[in-house]
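Re: weekly structure request thread

Next one in the queue (389 aa):
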Amino acid sequence: PGLCTAVATWTAPTANDNCGILSFTSSHSSGSSFPVGTTTVTYTATDVNSNVTTASFNVVVTDNELPAFSGFPSNINQPNTTGQCGRIVTWTSPTANDNCGISSVTATHNSGDFFPVGTTSVCYTATDVNGNVHNQCFNVTVIDNEAPVISGCPSSITVCEGQTVTFSTPTATDNCSGVSITQINGLPSGSVFPVGTTLCTFRATDASGNITNCNFNVIVNSNPTVNFNLNPNSICVYNNPVALSGGSPAGGSYTASCVSGGIFTPGTGIGQCPVGNHIITYTYTNGSGCSASATQTMNVSACTGIDEEQSSLVNVYPNPNAGNFFIDIQQQNVYNVTVFDYSGKQIYSKQINQAGKFEVQLPDPSRGIYMVLISSDNFSEVKKIVVNY
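Done, posted below.
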């Protein structure tokens, strides 16, 4: 081993002749060193009469010794370069040696090459002059220590009880491909969260198992408990406006088609509530900005109280009016005209001595319903008028 030769030994032949041997020679001697390859060994015998005989055999030396490397690198482990899915790796190249000589040395990778994250085998191949081949490898492992980066992580969200919470899914990037992001804690976007604080977490995971978490809170504040007991809950259409009450907790607001500033206004005019049922809503907002409502029904009644006799002999107009109206009487007679408010109080009285049209001007009228009594010795009729402006 280590030489490109081999010592060959054999038993030397002998020569014989009928007359005698003059000389007996050989090209090589047993115990000599022979080079790799085939060497012919020849023996020559000459008798005393100069007759010559030769005989030969081959000594074949085979090179079975593989090349060897010295200074072969050990396995290399290094982290990735920041922002890259790998790194440049360097090493000292090995040297090939052989007993007979090296023909060639090749490598799958060179020192200074860029290596991706993961394990790459680097192999050297040495071939000697006799075709013997030796392969030897080491591993270059580039470790991805760089965690993914999450963008668009939602800020904490504050809502009121019962509201739907929506948020966008954040995105993740990484120095290597294959990053994914999933929600691992909390309810998904579009859910109604329970009262209190819920931690939501999105996790980004790259191909090497590095993780980054994105956390935010969903804070759900309680709605207030609202009660509403409307009192009174019935009113006459001609009554004055009333301030609404009965909602709790105090400090809320009342709303309806004819409510402004917490004042309910019955009547037949614009922005007033006519005869019928009207839904009033009481809404309270607590210190967290959360609201709740309760409703009650206000009944607006005509509150006539007096049966009206209808006659074609008397006409009152315009109706509604502002407290100034006309009475048109078709039949000649002496009539008494008396006007009462809805409490039954007389507020106007006048005698008319003839048929025809005459004007009535109520003193200091207020909004409401009034009864107009037109009577004579043999006639009586009540007309209802509305003063609403």
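Confidence is low (pLDDT under 50) at residues 305-310. The chain has no helices and 37 strands.
Next request, please.
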